Amino acid sequence: MQTYQLVVSPCRKLYATVVIENNEEKVKIFSGEFDEYDSKALRDVIYLEFFEEFFIIQTYTDTYMMDLKERSVKLKFNLNTKISNIVAYSGDELIYASREEFEILKIKKVLLNDKFKEENIANVYLFKDFLIEYNKKEYENEICKLVKDYKIKKLGLSDKKNNDEVKVLFNYVNSDILINNKIVHSEKGYVDRVYLLSNGNLIYSVSSFLFPTKMIYYNITNNKRIVYNNYSEMKDIDINHEYITRRNIPAYIVSYKNNTNSGRILLYLHGGPAWNVIPTYFSWLEKTLKFGYSVVFMNYSGSTGYGEYHYKKLLRNNAKEALADIKEFVKHYNGNDIYILGESFGGYLAVLMSFYENKNIKLCMSVNGFVDYKYLYLFSYSKNVINNYFDLKTNENNPISIVQKNEIINKLIFLHSKKDIYSPIKSIYTFIQESGKDIDIYLLTDIGHYSVSYYKNRERDDIISKFLGGNYYE
Fold this sequence. Notes:
Elements (H helix, E strand, L loop, with lengths): L1 E7 L5 E8 L2 E8 L3 E7 L3 E7 L2 E6 L3 E5 L4 E6 L7 E5 L3 E9 L2 E8 L5 E9 L5 E4 L5 H15 L3 E4 L2 E7 L3 E6 L2 E7 L1 E7 L5 E7 L2 E9 L4 E4 L9 E8 L4 E8 L7 E6 L15 H6 L3 E5 L9 H5 L7 H13 L4 E7 L1 H9 L7 E7 L5 H7 L3 H7 L9 H5 L8 E6 L7 H11 L4 E5 L9 H15 L6
Parallel strand pairs: 24-25, 24-26, 26-27, 27-28, 28-29
Antiparallel strand pairs: 1-2, 2-3, 3-4, 5-6, 6-7, 7-8, 9-10, 10-11, 11-12, 12-13, 14-15, 15-16, 16-17, 18-19, 19-20, 20-21, 22-23, 23-25
Helix pairs in contact: 6-7
């Protein structure tokens, strides 16, 4: 059984999550200590939220507004984009925020009595100190409240109820849960959501490199911890957070304690690039470890979570600092076979490393990476990210320019989504044609650049596992 997307109602008496068991997906609403209040069987759920007297569920195809008192669906309609937040509801209109671009929230109005027509009424620029640009001066107070909530979230994971506040302090491996600045419990792994319930107890979700997300009810008075979905964790695994190589790059190193060092290392490069790897579950990790690999999750220059200097090193840098981190890593682990797996911006870095001559590199795998940042600037939803991280007056570290003059040296594989609007697949085909090589590309048919759907993530991870499980390495 797996769970994800834990949310709580405004009254703090109900909470909900997506539950997957025996290949069936349900949205379940609970009260108390996992007392089931309601349940609805749906597939590919991507968003949940309690709002006023409603419970809103969005799947890949439909959005449902459920009346909580009557426990029935009041409205069913289709939205053009994924919801990030519900902003307001007035009976005839639903206002929601959508993060179509990484650093922009688009505020949209849906006319519920007019064939669910949508229009954009404002943009919130998250990278310009939350600048609000209005197309229509509507719902200003509600939009300002949304912006205030986003600013609070930047300060860390927390929740308030009346005079009580719960916070989570993460120390790279474990999470301390504090109420009114006093530690009440510590969890192994990363607590991604925590809420104070009306009875004063806690509901939260936690995951780790060692296990998928668990939902936990914590009775503060009795110091009683109740796990809704428990897992048998991977045993004898070492997880260390270290600063590696001469460049002191932060990274997680995961391996079996009894690993006799097979000499094979998987280097994982995250996307963003304004992101960082934390100890959450990667379904391909267990199989990779069993094949004797050590796995290094690198938070290269430009990653968040390590201070302003580390983050700003990559701005308008054309990936030079991140690329230097990776090349130093390869030199540092000289004599080992190195496999590089990157997603999104990390996939772009993996492509660049396919041109780097080093006998230790055995495979570069790009998952929804990009190969032409100028093309993305003109023809994708990544325009603002590209503008932040690249000097477009040059072609420095642009793979499409490199491949026209240089040969790919290391084995390169693409795993790419046909519906990717942030890194359109057309440019990948152009790159392969320009290379003059027979480069393998594996297509994801029903998934975008990223997904919160369990089934669509599993499709992607199953293909990754074929490589990281050893089937294609020999």
